[in-house]
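INTERNAL AUDIT FORM
Audit reference: QA-55
Scope: verify that the stored structure record matches its stored sequence.
Auditor: D.O.
Record contents follow.
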Amino acid sequence: MATGRLTIDLDALAANWRALDALSGAHVQTAAVVKADAYGTGVAKAGRALAAAGARRFFVAVAEEGAALREALGPGPEISVFGGHMPGDTDMINDLGLVPMVNSVDQLTRQLEALPGHPFGIQLDSGMNRLGMEPAEWAAVRDIALAAQPRLIMSHLACSDEPEHDMNPRQLAAFHDMTQGLDVPLSLAATGGILMGPEYHFDLTRPGIGLFGGRPFAEAQRVVEIDLPVIQVRELATGESVGYGNAWVAERPTRIATVSGGYADGITRHLSNIGVMFFEDIPCPIVGRVSMDLIGVDVTHLGVEPAALNLLGPEQTVDDIADTTGTIGYEILTQLGHRYTRHHARGRM
């Protein structure tokens, strides 16, 4: 097999949902955010595993993602769309029973005129300045919106991965101000908000990255593993180079394994000359540039010729790679390409 193997532990995914669900009270519903193809893991199987674990409400970014999830889950679970009701979405929202989280007066008007009586939610901007109605806008349409009986009113925290950040209590206070006295279910917390405690939980939480093993949920079980097959091993003399641009030059006799994988598979070029892969628990440095399909790895110190090397696994998480390359685990996960042989496992890897 010449392609990398991407293993997704569905039992670990379900266990992470149950653990995050247990952090809030019995009166708080725990949803599941599965946008971006379930953070790169495959929305159909991930969605079904989460539904089997107990999730009954799901969130996606856009209506098209909702269509793929509805096909996998069938008619039962509720699927909400963060992007709201965009032009051209009406038939999909109606036919598939999606719940748009309307973000503006224009979206609210579109929803109420095109789909009167159809379920919808509302997103408020409590300070992130990304999606949602700002306080003045919300005040102008509040009575009209409430008369249509929204399913949920939500906002989103900008700094919940930094629990001590003063933005968190500011947004909490703003959300309280905008929803004071309303008899509508409320939601503010994603993974980080869940971890900050009950005052952020309201009626529904929306874990995302924590389900898939990423920060800030430090107790998360590992969900994703990547193994890349070794295509060829070669001996280099001192002074020979590896890969494009002669970006790495051997300072001693070296054995280089060329593995099948590269930036076309979502393996960032920023790992060039600084990243590592693993053979069992032994780190093996990436040497030269990460190219589209191939990566050079120094295996001089191994006593065997490896058949494959591990990029993500017990020795290196998505957040470890993110730290190495100056990004976040979300980006590492969601950039995973489509060439991997995907294996959805049950039980610990």
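Auditor finding: record pair retrieved intact. The chain has two domains: 9-212, 224-345.
Action required: none
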